[in-house]
Specification:
This protein has 277 residues and is α+β, with helices and mostly antiparallel strands. It is built from eleven helices and six strands. It folds into three domains: 78 residues, Barwin-like endoglucanases, CATH 2.40.40; 33 residues, no CATH class; 150 residues, no CATH class. Helix 6 runs parallel beside helix 10 and helix 8 packs antiparallel against helix 10.
């Protein structure tokens, strides 16, 4: 949040009923610096009260929704108007780990049974729905990538089997049973998959780290980003559990993709394969 020199200060003087609003909100309300606006509240007895506030500062952020919905006034002024001290109606908690939301909510509900405790999805269901939709889209996108990966692995290993038909036929003719041939093809496929997957994840981790430190500038679509509540410069990051999940999915894809080439190798007839040039 920034306030430039020509747009006042953040409660610079000790005067009553000062307010700081955003430039976007001032344009929407058609008010200016030093203008007065009326705020209406419901006091502790349930009655409507209102008071005039003088604009002492105009701030600006990269979040359009925040700018149009949030204003700042002094806690003491709000207490005098509502007739209560401290005039607190909501406490927001920010957790280090999103996975702890349900645990913390359950703990707080047990300690403060008279209060309403909600997580961010309950407070903003539209944002929660958007997050769930993005997760589903990510899983669909990941599924498409793994599907393409499976085709690539099958194609590579099938070509390897066809090019080594004579070699596999000779191994079978000197006593190598079909189970060992099947295991050999599967192990080669898994090693190929793991090598490529680990190399790709190392490269991606380095690129994500660089992008996180430098930021990705999306100013060309900055207006749209601000309308959704995001800055035009984003700092991507991926947690280690995502890499672990992705590694497991790659291994599963590699194992499943090795079945067809391995079965193809089992159908080789040693007597015919040896005669191949």
């Amino acid at each position: 949040m920034t306030i430039d020199d020509s747009s006042g200060t953040y409660f610079g003087e000790e005067k009553k009923n000062q307010i700081v609003i955003s430039k976007k909100l001032s344009e929407k309300l058609k008010v200016r610096f030093h203008s007065k606006i009326i705020l209406r509240f419901q006091d502790s007895t349930g009655n409507l009260v209102e008071s005039a506030f003088k604009i002492v500062g105009l701030f600006r952020t990269f979040n359009t929704m925040f700018d149009e919905q949030v204003v700042f006034i002094k806690n003491s002024d709000l207490g005098n108007i509502l007739g209560m001290s401290p005039p607190c109606h909501e406490i927001a908690l920010i957790l280090n780990e999103g996975r702890d939301i349900d645990i913390v909510k359950t703990s707080l509900q047990a300690q403060f049974k008279g209060l309403r405790i909600q997580n961010w999805k309950e407070l903003q269901p539209d944002l929660g729905l958007m997050s769930e939709i993005m997760d589903i889209e990510m899983m669909i996108f990941l599924g498409i990538i793994l599907f393409a990966l499976a085709f690539g692995i099958i194609n590579t290993m099938l070509m390897a089997v066809l090019e080594r038909t004579k070699e596999l036929g000779m191994l079978m003719s000197i006593g190598m049973n079909r189970i060992r041939v099947f295991k050999m093809i599967m192990i080669e496929t898994v090693l190929l998959t793991v090598t490529g997957g680990v190399t790709g994840m190392i490269i991606s981790a380095v690129l994500i780290r660089i992008s996180y430190s430098e930021g990705v500038d999306l100013s060309m679509v900055g207006k749209g980003m601000e309308a959704l509540g995001y800055e035009s410069v984003v700092y991507p990051t991926i947690t280690p559990d995502y890499f672990i999940f992705l590694t497991g999915m790659i291994l599963v894809t590699g194992v499943l993709s090795s079945i067809y080439p391995a079965r193809k190798a089992l159908k080789i007839k040693p007597s015919e394969a040896i005669k191949m040039e």
